[in-house]
Inverse folding.
């Protein structure tokens, strides 16, 4: 029995007469855009850039017309995010400044204390995720983005039976790392 | 039946058991329902799942605004899809038309070529700077030349009629102001003498009106200039001739040797304590140098309010940067506030601020962005930019590219 998409319905429907897939791309876009942006944000840690990459993924998808839209867009998104992270490393200092600019502009719109707390949480999550292995992190983020075990298995090359074990380990490590960071923060006062 | 392993337990928890276990899914589910230990493990796994979900949700973004699908279609029509390096990855194989848009990647060889070009340009610029500022090693090297970072060139504005024609000795060197010629004199003794001869030829007598005292030249650099604001021309000339004299007395004739590296044009403008010097060398290379203020007193910690009170205006800071310290001191006889802020990469941004003199506002070119000349090329040199804001002269200094520092200073509040 084929797994039912967990949260985001896959709108691709096979046209048996023609053997092709008829995809309602507007529906795919509406159903997946938000989770895709969140997925990308946790990869590149830049909200504006996450939006840009997500839109580019859909533009490419329209050109490519893949049979399995959701698996395809997350695979392309992961690749784009990887390229982006590499590019950021190359121009790290400059981007740090630019990102800081953007955050500062944003922070000026809200209460400084709130902004500070938000930023601290963001950094803690980022560091906790960094404590995971790349594979564990990918599986966890893909699951959180709404992909089912089979789709995650296709994307990561793991067997579907290994996804549960990987998720179990990733969740535990994330929680433990985050709790440890919170304790450190509390100890510093 | 043995207890359920983690893989199946989490698959059960996530509603994916059928995809993983297939026909055994029903039996596994029945065991979990019946086994207290497995149920306890299931509860613990559920707690981890919920907690990890909450942690990820905290990373934001809080709200994701979904642009209309039509914008994606429009973007596709206008060719904003960027083809990327395929890297053998399937999704990139036929990813679309020509690479256009913000996410276009630069090919590795292109980036390398650009990097090499920029590195070459920087290296040439650095050496060109050396050609202007660094004299050939000889005992009579003038201090202004040997220490370019402290004293780039402190010549006076060129007064009408003060530029010499060819020197009477027949020098083929470029016409230049006498003190500048003296300050720039370098190389073998003959050159020194030639320069000194130039100086003798064109320098007016002490007190002559062709050189305003306020812009009097000195070969000791700006630091000394700040302490001796009206150093007489004659003194500089005397120093030069005195330096050359023993050699003349030793029997050498002042041969008409040209001075190879001479600033053909020197323009200097003092804005407050910041000296802006622009000069062209013999081959037409333009060099602009901004020096920091000299004669700085010791900095003392200061409250920001106290600094604003004594400054007579706001202490400008870059919003969002951590403030390390606010200090007060006296530079060139004027009260100056120095604020240090922490940049995101951990380095420091230094902001020196004091009241702009009355004339500065009328000189928009007072804003210069240059790198300070340093004796040795540093891997991450400081940039220094002075701007005028709200009647204040603010000099920012940080280990950043000049454009980044300029962008930061534009946000001063």
């Amino acid at each position: 029995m084929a797994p039912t998409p967990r949260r985001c319905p896959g709108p691709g429907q096979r046209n048996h007469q023609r053997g092709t897939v008829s995809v309602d791309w507007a529906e795919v876009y509406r159903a997946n855009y938000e989770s895709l942006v969140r997925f990308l944000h946790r990869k590149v840690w830049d909200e504006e850039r996450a939006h840009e990459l997500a839109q580019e993924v859909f533009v490419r998808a329209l050109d490519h017309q893949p049979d399995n839209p959701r698996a395809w867009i997350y695979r392309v998104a992961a690749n784009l995010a990887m390229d982006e992270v590499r590019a950021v490393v190359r121009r790290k200092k400059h981007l740090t400044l630019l990102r800081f600019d953007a955050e500062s502009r944003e922070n000026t719109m809200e209460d400084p204390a709130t902004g500070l707390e938000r930023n601290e949480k963001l950094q803690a999550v980022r560091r906790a995720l960094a404590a995971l292995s790349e594979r564990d992190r990918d599986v966890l983020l893909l699951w959180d983005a709404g992909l089912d075990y089979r789709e995650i298995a296709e994307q990561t090359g793991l067997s579907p039976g290994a996804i549960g074990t990987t998720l179990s380990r990733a969740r535990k490590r994330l929680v433990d790392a985050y709790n440890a960071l919170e304790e450190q923060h509390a100890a510093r006062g | 039946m043995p207890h359920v392993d983690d893989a199946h337990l989490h698959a059960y928890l996530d509603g994916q058991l059928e995809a993983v276990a297939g026909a055994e899914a029903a039996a596994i589910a029945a065991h979990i329902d019946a086994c207290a230990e497995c149920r306890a493990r299931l509860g613990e796994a559920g707690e981890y799942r919920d907690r990890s979900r909450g942690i990820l949700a905290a990373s934001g973004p809080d709200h994701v605004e979904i642009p209309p699908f039509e914008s994606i279609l429009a973007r596709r029509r206008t060719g904003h899809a960027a083809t990327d390096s395929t890297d053998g990855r399937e999704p990139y194989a036929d990813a679309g038309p020509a690479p256009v848009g913000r996410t276009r990647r630069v090919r590795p060889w292109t980036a390398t070529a650009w990097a090499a070009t920029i590195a070459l340009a920087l290296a040439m610029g650095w050496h060109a700077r050396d050609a202007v500022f660094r004299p050939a090693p000889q005992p009579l090297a003038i201090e202004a030349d040997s220490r370019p970072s402290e004293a780039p060139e402190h010549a006076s504005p060129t007064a009408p009629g003060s530029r010499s024609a060819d020197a009477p000795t027949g020098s083929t060197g470029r016409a230049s102001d006498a003190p500048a010629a003296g300050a720039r004199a370098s190389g073998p003794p003959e050159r020194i003498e030639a320069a000194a001869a130039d100086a003798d030829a064109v320098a007016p007598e002490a007190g002559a009106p062709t050189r305003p005292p306020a812009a009097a030249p000195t070969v000791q650099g700006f630091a000394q200039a700040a302490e001796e604001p009206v150093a007489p021309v004659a003194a500089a000339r005397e120093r030069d001739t005195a330096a050359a004299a023993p050699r003349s007395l030793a029997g050498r004739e002042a041969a008409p040797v040209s001075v190879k590296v001479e600033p053909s044009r020197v323009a200097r403008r003092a804005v407050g304590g910041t000296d802006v010097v622009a000069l062209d060398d013999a081959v037409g290379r333009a060099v602009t140098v901004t020096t920091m203020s000299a004669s700085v007193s010791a900095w003392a910690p200061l409250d920001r309010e106290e600094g604003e009170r004594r400054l007579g205006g706001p202490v400008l800071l870059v919003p969002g940067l951590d403030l390390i310290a606010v200090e007060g001191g006296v530079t060139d006889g004027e009260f100056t506030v120095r604020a240090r802020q922490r940049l995101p990469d951990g380095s420091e941004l230094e902001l020196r601020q004091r009241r702009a003199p009355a004339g500065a506002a009328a000189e928009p070119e007072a804003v210069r962005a240059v790198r300070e000349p340093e004796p040795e090329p540093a891997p991450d040199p400081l940039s220094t930019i002075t701007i005028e804001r709200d009647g204040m002269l603010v000099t920012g200094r940080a280990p950043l590219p000049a454009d980044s520092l300029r962008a930061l200073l534009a946000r001063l509040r």
